Model the fold of this input.
Amino acid sequence: MLAPTIAHLSFVRDDGLPLDFIPGQFVQVHFTYADGTATKRSYSLATIHDHAIGPGEAVDIAVSYVPGGSATALFESLDIDGVVQASGPYGRFCLMPADTNARYLLIATGTGVTPYRAMLPLLEQQVVERGLQVVVLFGARSPEELLYGDEFRAAAARHPGRFRFVPCFSRELPDPGSAHSHDDVRHGYVQQFIDEFAPTADDDIAYLCGNPNMVDACFEALKAHGLPVPQIRREKYVSSK
Done:
């Protein structure tokens, strides 16, 4: 478990083919409700993508467990070596090769941070090769829900002044002196701190991934700073039973 209600799960294709993907893409897991109605859920791929993924290599997703949720029942009852039906990868919530921006503002809540984890090698490559700046603004209720926080902090340490990891805790701050406590920690919601980074249309491309209320609030805030819609890329995560 990554957090009390979030599981990190790894899967391989059972047909012997690779499940390669572009960082930022997602897969859809297909299953049925208790009454037999077919449904599906989308999960961003969280795997650190630093090479071409080959046959037999696992890919990772982060799954929020929702009390009474049908998808939750599916995953909680899954044994090691169990099988799920899935399709993909899908989506264009990815870093675009033609981007010439000076900075990426990567904003997330909850499991919405998983695509940014997959993007880490590409982001660090661009930091080195073209002097890109990166800000990961990540909202969590408490330090124990800060998914992959160690990996983002390590990236920030490797690129001081170029890569910032800014966790925003809405309920519980980390203890002073703990691993989660540092100067970029904020108390509140991610949308409260957008002004601090002074986004501009000339410099920034923003990515928003997480709960719909956050995505909508940040979208409006970024537009108010003058970012045109094509420079605000969005994915909404809906918890559904």
In short: The first helix runs from residue 70 to 76. The mean pLDDT is 93. The domain at 6-90 is CATH 2.40.30.10 (Elongation Factor Tu (Ef-tu); domain 3). The two ends are 20 Å apart (CA to CA).
